[in-house]
Amino acid sequence: MFFLGIVNTWYSSKATTTTTGNYSNIKDNVVTNQRGEESQQAAKKSLRSLLPSNKEGEERTPSDSIRGPGQMRNPTTSDASPLCTAEQMRKIAHQLMLTEDKDINFKDTSKLNSPRLANWFQCPETSWIDKFYAEETDIGSSDFLGISVGCNKGHDAIRTARMGLSDATIDAHKWRDEFHSAEEGVCSQEYADQYNVVFPQRKGEMHCIEPMPSTFSELDRAGDKLGLKSKGMVFTHAAISSTSGAVNFPNIDIGMERSSIGDCNSKAKAGKNCVEVPMFSLEDYVAKYVKGRGPINILQIDVEGYDFDVLFGAGSVLDSTHYLEFEYHKQGKWGNLHLQDAVRLLDGKGFTCYWSGENRLWRISGCYFEHYNYFHGWSNVACVHRSQKRLYDRMEK
Asked: Using an 8 Å Cβ cutoff, are 173 and 234 in contact?
């Protein structure tokens, strides 16, 4: 596990920071996250042109999503992610092979695609969350609540359910054998090691939300065959976005990945294997389908480039989330956004985010390089709410 070396001093809203060291221009690469009302107003202004409209055609803002489904909220965190020191920035730059600013023409993205930056974050092995559930008796709540948005073939959701519900009868290998699809997972999730259940079984729910009709039908069938619905698994046919309503979505081969809401938006593609499916904001979904009122222990988002829409539509659900994962690349909406847009939004909600690799993490929040604004390679990001100190400490090591 990569050791970042945590800064013990958190800086306040009025603090200013200057970093020094041999790595040139490091201080210019550190994004100083503003605090309080000033940060919220800046975030609203920078995102306003990117936000979808509601049913009345009016612009939505983060304040439109204050209402909540009644989930137990995280403790308030007034501080933001700690800034990296110059030494920490040098370590990250060295490990990710980031070239010094003076040697980079940022318009030439090929210079940003080092073997490490381009490839290390594609198929993470999340040992930090596995070990947390294997070693901690207190996961932050008595019951477990997990949500997988863009569940696809269900392999990650089944494994998370086994881990979070601590139920050895939820068998990922049996799921692999029962779920019928000619498509293999891009990261071969179906062949991942089975989670070793340690603690007594927990009550709770694991939601597997999938918009593609063919894939959902197979998820639902396999869930019935294996009796998983009586064990806390919830399979829902829906798309999750920034608003609620209905949307056209591709209906192609079972388990086909890299299909999204955007595939049916153009006139050229309309009517070509596209069908209307129900759509919810994550906040509305939780209010309608989630029975428990505890926190969301794990939130997984994989919606082929529309992850930011899910985050924006989450509203107060983020205030109740302990840990979340999402993808970042150049597909869908991500092509017109920077990673900083999501990291800034989440930092204001109390989250610290990291590049997610094979049993390694590299902190993004408070350690932001300008390189990231021009990098849109396929990658994964993991974030933890800073109120969850035991998990946060593990991810910082």
From this structure: no
**Residues 65, 373: contact at Cβ < 8 Å?**
no
Residue 226: both structure tokens together: 């294996």
DSSP state of 215: H
Candidates 160, 157, 101; CA nearest to 130 is 160
Give every CB contact of residue 303 below 8 A, 6+ residues apart in sequence: 149, 150, 239, 240, 260, 261, 309, 310, 327, 332
Q: What is the pLDDT of residue 81?
A: 84
**How many Å is the Cα radius of gyration of the chain?**
21
With a CB cutoff of 8 Å and minimum separation 6, the contacts of 118 are 377
CA atoms within 13 A on the CB side of 325: 26
Distances (CA, A) of 160 to 221, 274, 295: 19, 30, 16
The CA distance from 17 to 374, in Å, is 24
Say how far apart CA 96 and CA 307 lie, in whole Å: 24
Task: Give the CA distances from residue 371 to residues 32, 84, 94, 120, in Å, rounded to whole numbers and listed in that order.
Answer: 16, 16, 13, 16
3-state class of 273 per DSSP? coil
In sequence order, what are the residues at sequence separation of 6 or more whose Cβ sits closer than 8 angstroms to the Cβ of residue 49? none
CA 114, CA 332: separation in Å to the nearest integer? 23
- Name every residue whose Cβ is closer than 8 Å to that of residue 178 and which is 6 or more positions away in sequence: 222, 225, 226
Q: In 172-285, which ranges are E strands?
A: 204-210, 233-237, 239-241, 245-250, 274-281
**Contact yes or no for 81/32 (Cβ under 8 A):** no
Q: Which tokens belong to 306?
A: 């529309």
Each residue of 227-258: pLDDT tens digit?
A: 999 999 999 999 999 999 999 999 989 988 87
Which of the residue ranges 155-159, 213-217, 312-316 would you say has the lowest mean pLDDT?
312-316
Residues 33, 11 contacting (CB under 8 angstroms): no
Q: In 3D, which of 284, 261, 260, 377 has the Cα closest to residue 327? A: 377
The pTM of the full predicted model, rounded to 2 decimals, is 0.81
Alpha carbon distance 154, 312 (integer Å): 24
Contact present, 310 and 303 (Cβ < 8 Å):
yes
The string of pLDDT tens digits covering residues 135-158 is 999 999 999 999 999 999 999 999
